[in-house]
Amino acid sequence: MYPHHNRGKSFFNIYQCSELALSRPLRPAHCSPAIISDVPARGKFITFEGLDGSGKSTQIEKLARSLRAHGLSVSVTREPGGTATGEKIREVLLHSATAGLSPLTEMALMFASRAQHIHEVILPALAEGRIVLCDRFTDSTEAYQGGGRKLGIKPVLQLHEILCGNLQPDLTVLLDNEVAFSVERARRRNRGRKNSHSAKDENRFEQENRAFFGRVRHAYLAIAEREPQRVQVVNARGTPGETHAIIMELMRKKLKI
Ligand SMILES: Nc1ncnc2c1ncn2[C@@H]1O[C@H](COP(=O)(O)OP(=O)(O)OP(=O)(O)O)[C@@H](O)[C@H]1O
Ligand SMILES: [Mg+2]
Question: Residue 238 CA: which ligand 1 atom is closest?
């Protein structure tokens, strides 16, 4: 599952040397919500983005294993969810029986989960010098609610500023693949899970049509174009091992891990 904190060896020295850790804006001067900690973050915040079935969870698990094998302290978490409250919100958002949510309500619930997650999990872990690997973050809201649901970029960025103190990942890995490949993988996975009693129904978005996911992918690629320093597009068509090797290379190059 997704433990909020996995304690291990500290990675403090490497963070101290990092130019990226020093440059991440946590509190823009014009926006200082009370939830955002004054403690300077020393850790690394790495987010994974991409369509349903693009391989985010698979790659996060592999990366966490590799980083821990190097003796690094890693927290793995996810959105929506990552906290007890967030997991309840996740169930509402992802269960296929949830009907009639307006796009604005959907976006508000995503941000409610995120604000709690930042407060309860992400900032404390970063303050401890941990590497936080997060399965989806605000780029998902920009892609799915902004693009897929056509709410546009502006409300997403405004809410991110108000509710999340404009917290920016040090690095975002965008796993990119054709819509048909990704969504088919996710659907195949979900069909397999149906036979398992413990698996939760998280199929609400996967029932959307091809045009919806086309808008989501387009929105993701537009974010990568707008923020090439932060967002690295990774071709997700290869095997899990091939994609993992690309991501490890990115870690070395971008984060000096
Ligand atoms: N590179 C790959 N090649 C083939 N199959 C893969 C690859 N990566 C992951 N898979 C399989 O595809 C399915 C979806 O992968 P995964 O659950 O990691 O995607 P995800 O991006 O986390 O999806 P979601 O957004 O729905 O959580 C899984 O059954 C997984 O085992
Ligand atoms: Mg996943």
Answer: 1
Considering every ligand atom, which ligand is closest to the CA of 53?
A: 1
- The residue ranges of every structural domain in the chain are 12-19+41-255
The correct CATH number of 12-19+41-255 out of 3.40.50.2300, 3.30.70.2200, 2.60.40.10, 3.40.50.300 is 3.40.50.300
Distance 31 CA to ligand 2 centre (A): 32
Measured from the CA of 236, which atom of ligand 1 is nearest? 1
pLDDT tens digit string along 202-237? 989 988 999 999 999 999 999 999 999 999 999 999
Atom of ligand 1 nearest to the CA of 59: 18
Q: pTM of the full predicted structure? A: 0.87
Integer Cα distance of 43 and 131 in angstroms: 5
Output the CA–CA distances (angstroms, integers) from residue 111 to 56, 123, 137, 158, 253, in the order listed. Answer: 20, 16, 10, 11, 31
